[in-house]
Amino acid sequence: MQLAIVTGVTAVATGLFLAPFSRQLDDQAMRRALAIAQSTAAEPGLDDLVTDGARPDPGGPVQHVAERVRRATGASYVVVMDDRGIRWSHAKRQRIGERVSTDPAPVLAGHEVREIDEGTLGRSARGKAPLRDADGEVVGAVSVGIAYDSVRDRLLTAVPGLLAYAGAALGLGALAALLIARRLQKRTHDLAFSDISALLAEREAMLHGIREGVVALDAHGRVRLVNDEARRLLDLRPEHTGVPLEEALGPGRTTEVLAGRVPGSDLLAVHGGRVLVANRMPTHDGGAVATLRDRTELELLGRELDSSQGLIDALRAQDHEHANRMHILLGLLQLELYGEALDYLSEAVGEHRDTAEQISGWVRDPRLAALLVGKATVAAERGVALRVTPGTSLPDRLVDPPALATVVGNLVDNALDAAAGPAGAWVEVALWARGRTDVAVRVSDSGPGIPPERRDMVFAEGWSTKEPPAHGKRGLGLALVRRLAERYGGSARVSGGREGGAEFTVTLPEALHPHTP
């Protein structure tokens, strides 16, 4: 195909050169014929010889002048005619005295003529010039012809050189085509075009059929290819292909991971409420291919396992506390301190009832209240006092109770981990409605707190000060808190507590159904 293209282009270029070259030779021949005619018409006394009243003579002076000019210039013929178009000279003497074969009217009217024409001597390049007397009146004309064979001979003489150049160009083109073909075969691993087409079709089917997201980036960080699963996971649209990754996804950890600015494998990222596991493989051209796995369901399962573990811890704590109290009660009864036993039993039962009633009175949603009661039991087991701030008031109008339970549970868990250990440790929780539909959550602790320079990092995916659990990695709890807050159009921030430690504040607009009286 490449050789055919090179050959065709060379042939067309040669033809395009020959066409104007032939016209140029014709023009040169006509100009030369006209110049000879003009110089002949300017011969001194020629006009007098035509107008002296004599008759055309094959051996006369006009024929002598014309033949001299013809032999000197190499013209095919030099014809001198009078104002009637009668020849006074000709290369064939027998035609002298006859009328010219072509119309002499234009030249006898005083116009110079250049043309390619057929005459009595065949095809020729012709030039005609008027013959004027001393007063400038046209008394005849001179017609000069140059045989067209000489023009064709000049053209044919130039053709071999032209073909040599064309052949050289064709040879270079063939060599370049051969080198390109070999390079193409090397780059395509000697695959035929049909094989490449089949591979592309299979690649498209594979990319869009697998359940992993695939994103290909070029050397400049632009999105080059996205399969269907990646579009779903990253909320990408077709128009995002070809745009920079930051413009397609916006700033955040997901962009940092896909761009390769976060080292490591199986990196976690949260995007649009989904927990993703990303891996990135650079390509030889400076780009990269990133794969994404949706770990949201697995993470939710892990969270459910954490919740189940928390429930087990709460039950274990209650069982431990219940056993201790039963032992105390048994000892009092064995010592026959019946009054003290009755007082102790009343105090224990009343304390638990008061705590549960207090929380359920302030927090009307039963699931959230149960969560706080369970966290209070776990906190007591760990030696941490979990307090609900007086004035807490949350109506039973939550739009998404599981989401708020996730926020409160993650914040309390982080606070318990930070505060546990020293005597007198405490965690304080406050929840309240702001306006008609907004909810605010504040969780503070007595832990060591978070340095100001690290407070922006605590909400980043993957950042944690704790060891990872058995089911996966840490560093997602606070990231999910911020993500949930942002989903509601709110915010999550951390600051230093009034009594030391850290204080987390989360605002959730539109988290309550509007109150209808």
From TrEMBL:
One of its GO terms (molecular function) is phosphorelay sensor kinase activity. Its EC number is 2.7.13.3. It comes from the Bacteria. This is histidine kinase. The keyword Zinc-finger does not apply. It comes from Streptomyces boncukensis. It catalyses: ATP + protein L-histidine = ADP + protein N-phospho-L-histidine. It is found in: Cell membrane. It is a multi-pass membrane protein. Its main location: membrane. CDD domains: HATPase_DpiB-CitA-like. Residues 400-512 form the Histidine kinase domain. One of its GO terms (biological process) is regulation of DNA-templated transcription. It is an enzyme of class 2 (transferase). Coiled coil: none annotated. GO terms for cellular component: plasma membrane. The chain crosses the membrane at residues 162-181. Signal peptide: none annotated. It holds the Pfam family SPOB_a. Keywords: ATP-binding, Cell membrane, Kinase, Membrane, Nucleotide-binding, Phosphoprotein, Transferase, Transmembrane, Transmembrane helix, Two-component regulatory system.
